[in-house]
Amino acid sequence: MKKRVLAVMLAAVMVVGLVAGCAKKSEPASSDKGKDDGEKQLKVALVVNQKFGDKASMDDLAKGADQAAEDFGVEIKKLESAEASKFEEDVRAMSKAGYDLIVTTYGYMTDATKLVSKEYPDTKYAAIFQTINDGSEKYENVWDTEFHGEGAFYLGGYIAGKLTKSNHVGFVVGAEEPTPNAEGNGFMMGVKAANPDATVEFSYVGSYEDPAKAKEITSAMISKGCDVIQADSGASNAGVVEASKDAGILCAGEISDYYDTYEGFYGIEGIGFGDTVYKAIEMLKNGEYPGGEHGIRDLTNGGYFMDWDSFNRFADGNAEYKDVMKAAIEEAQKMEEQIKDGSLEVPFNTDVPNWDKIKASAE
């Protein structure tokens, strides 16, 4: 009897031991992927005011964040905060959740970024395309950057001025804001430098997410005689391309490539939105975060760039425009170097673009 009891007790002990051993093997793995050195994984939240999938700035921001995740092993959270009433709520939620860096987009989110950054002084914020630390009041945990694209669009305007056969060019922009206005004025200056006999039509879509409205505006420009149109309107660019394709005229755009949609799409002015997100994460990772500073990104530092491959692609694939495009590219590349070294100055003019004023202005 005693032997039987002892056997039962030994069996019970063995079962307990087996259960305990199994329990240890099933413990969840750490969420700090790739952190073999024991370093805390950084968490980054990308909170945007437009929808992803726009083939424009939002997708470029996401691309930069994804590349940083791959290169630095950070955790990325992407959140669409498409309604102004939710900006503050969403930025605060990400801050409360313990994200180390929160990226917000455009001036529409500035108030929310300022307010929440004061509530969470230990959290870092990257305010893309915003002006926060440009005045006397500094937010020491915020790095904000504005974008000045007048130089890049000057080059785009120069090329458009050379390509037009009707001497009639159009510029379609998303909304009335300082930088897009400066881009429009830079574009007009470029057209004037290339072709002082040209005329430039200009119009706001009123949204960066309304291709139908952009198509309507573009069609109206075409009816006035425009045979070359520059788009600067985010996801609305799709409408510009569609109208241009329907009419068989040339068009160009910022960030996104529409050449597969229409072979009359002749080039891209790149904007480094994704590069700015990447740099913010990299600086935080390296302990060099520039909180309290305001930065300007432009043609001289990678904030804007000319995608010359896209312009050359058009030239190589279009016999009608090949010679004039190749010559325009060569001249524009010389001007690009002059802008970068300061010998050619394109002003950051935020007035509403007006061709008559540009044409009447002194060189």
TrEMBL record:
It is found in: Cell membrane. GO terms for cellular component: plasma membrane. It holds the Pfam family Bmp. Residues 1-25 form the signal peptide. Keywords: Cell membrane, Coiled coil, Lipoprotein, Membrane, Signal. Residues 43-333 form the ABC transporter substrate-binding protein PnrA-like domain. This is Basic membrane protein A.
